Amino acid sequence: MKKLVAGLLMTGLLFVGLNVNAQTIVKGNLSALKGATGVNVVFTYNGLTVGKEGKEENYLKRKKQEKDSKEPGSGDKWIEQWNADKEKRYKPKFIQLLSKYTEWQLNEDTKEKYTMVVNTTFLEPGYYVGVSAGHARLNLEISIYEADNMNKALCRITMEDVKAGKGQFDTASRVSEAYAKAGKMIAKFIMKNSKK
């Protein structure tokens, strides 16, 4: 199990925290969220790499060829679903667990004082082939801003190797479980560190 390193840069102090499956490094100050009623959540995929393919475009190209070789024309439909899952499945799952473990009442249309930008930099979709299965894995960069000043982050958090969803048959279910785990982890981290 990897060590969670909570490096909170406040007045030159470094705090080291809990053991979990991912590493989290925080730069900035979470105290602004003390007493917050919630955050707006924005998902981005800037610089996303997927599995061993590197750039997301490489992964999509391979999957399109793979799908089209089995059923001509199905590759484009698969890519459309891949992109739709980001907004329809991954983001809601993250928000659901973030809400549950912060007790914030969040939804897709939340209008709050603070905005959390969740940028996925790496995504391993995992696999399921009956006798063998692999986790979905994520690396995330999370930045928290005042909603009316998106130029300067109050806090930056990186989460590495968040994994879940082993045994789930379809890709979207595996990846959704990884986002759920990330939502739970970041919620607990915020609740602990925003009180300092």
TrEMBL record:
Keywords: Signal. Residues 1-22 form the signal peptide. The keyword Signal applies. This is DUF4468 domain-containing protein.
